[in-house]
Amino acid sequence: MDAGDWGVKSRLEIKKRAADHGQGNTISMCWGGHGQDGYLVSVTVRSQYGRVPSVIEDVTIWNNILFSGAAVLNLFGP
């Protein structure tokens, strides 16, 4: 198997959350390619086909270990 054939997706991805927290995680080994950007933490407000509203609020991410990624943080909002 060639290393280019591997699909690696190990990250924290938040699309719709309220009053939540993430702590004590190890997030690593996330690279770009195969339709992925390689962010270790991705916070994006998304809706289902534009019909269902999505909100991210009161979310805390702390005390985590992040390493070996193409990038660390992706924040996206309307």
Could you please describe the fold and organization of this structure?
This protein has no helices and seven strands. The protein has strands spanning 12-14, 17-23, 26-30, 39-44, 56-62, 65-69, 71-76. Strands 1-4-7 form a three-stranded parallel β-sheet, with no helix packed on it. 0% of the residues lie in helices and 50% in strands. The protein has one domain. The mean pLDDT is 79. The chain is mainly beta and 78 residues long.
Concise description?
This protein is an all-beta fold and 78 residues long.
Cross-sheet strand order for the largest sheet: 1-4-7
Q: How many structural domains can be distinguished in the coordinates?
A: 1
Shape: flat
Number of helices: 0
Distance between the termini: 40 Å
Secondary structure: helix percent: under 10%
The low-confidence runs, each spanning 5 or more residues with pLDDT under 50, are none
Q: What is the count of β-strands? A: 7
- SSE sequence, one letter per element: EEEEEEE
Question: Per DSSP, what share of the residues sits in E-state strands of 2 or more residues?
Answer: over 45%
Give Rg in angstroms. Answer: 14 Å
User: Mean of residue pLDDT?
Assistant: 79
Which structural class do the helices and strands define? mainly beta
Main pleated sheet: 3 strands, parallel
Write the layout of secondary structure elements.
Elements: E1 12-14, E2 17-23, E3 26-30, E4 39-44, E5 56-62, E6 65-69, E7 71-76
Parallel strand pairs: 1-4, 2-5, 3-6, 4-7
